[in-house]
Amino acid sequence: MIQENILRAIEEEFCPSDAGFYTYHDPGQDKYYGFFIDEISKVWMLSKPYATERNCENALQRFRDGHFLADVKEGGGGLFYTEFRSEAGQVLAWSPEFIDRVDAEQAEGRLKGIQSQQEGSAAEAMEPEITERTPPRHSFRLDFYRGGPQTPIRGRIEYSLTQESVAFQGLDMNLVRSFVARRLDNIEGPEGVAGVSSGEIRILEHGQPASQAVFSTETPLEVSLEIDIPEGEGYNAFVYAKSLGDHRELLIGRKQGASGPVRVPVFTRGLGSGLYRFTATVHLEGASREGQPADYSLSSALFQLFSETEAGVEVS
What we know:
There is one protein chain. By secondary structure, this protein is α+β, with helices and mostly antiparallel strands. It has helices spanning about 5-15, 55-65, 100-125, 175-185, and strands at about 20-25, 30-35, 45, 70-75, 80-85, 90-95, 140-145, 155-160, 165-170, 195-205, 210, 215, 220-225, 235-245, 250-260, 260-265, 275-285, 295-300, 305. Strands 10, 11, 12, 13, 14, 15, 16, 17, 18 and 19 form a ten-stranded mixed β-sheet that branches. The model is unreliable at about 130-135, about 185-195 and about 310-315 (pLDDT under 50).
């Protein structure tokens, strides 16, 4: 059932400008909760707790995509609530309790309503007015908020066209740059020199090049980014897992350093089974001299992941 103390804390601390899905970190439990809140700070859905923010975000994406089931149930004292489950039957979240059953039934409608709005906005964005010389447009939304009075600022950037988003802590402008760069067709470097160069990602298993293309989500993996970084050159590398099933990209590894080679540990636990490829963006901090790319965009060969493990905490 829903945890009333978490519900009250969220409604007191969050004042969103738009209805939507967000995450909340409870410092007492050191757990993450996903929730849906409307424009007047009314919470309509609160998830079970998760051990990591990434697992919480994965669960929230199911709601954003509409991949959930909802049933109204009667609890103690004759109150009603909505139970949200995955399509496989796993309990994911609950609504608050209501005196009237019709109010509990509205919870599913609120979540479905925001999904329909997002799909409508995406459809409108995908069908822009065509003119003879209309330049391409890319729209991003950047939100900052605090999970509590003593907690650091947290943020989220979203690509409006596809509703893809990434959460981060602090003023993580390197991650923001990487997210934006991956979705632009081209980034112009100094004096009109193209700022993006391509490269290859090699998958490493136990420190050695992988001899297969099938991996368990429990297997420790690294990726080697095959790019030439000048001696002493600083870089920021971001690695994503892109699903060929739903085309989502999730940030699974990042590294900051200087010079090559660039090896980044990646964390696949919590990803669903399916066909994937790794993609990466590398930004060179000192790439201002002529002819030096400012960013690298890299991609791996296709591979298969299996045996999903979710590090959440069940609440009864």
